[in-house]
Write the structure tokens for this entry.
Amino acid sequence: MIDGNELLLKQLIIKYKRFCDAFCNNNLENIIISMKEYLYEVFSAREKLGIGKETILNLKQ
């Protein structure tokens, strides 16, 4: 069974990949939307999980 923290981290990774894909597609509307969604996930993950910048950067790799 997936717990809430694992689901939150998976959503963070998905939002980051969408954000990167928007840049690759060079679509300004999608860049803005995906950036907003990604930042929303980052701030909630940092608040709920108490993780720092280094942990988030490691998740992206």
Summary: The first helix runs from residue 4 to 25. The radius of gyration is 12 Å.
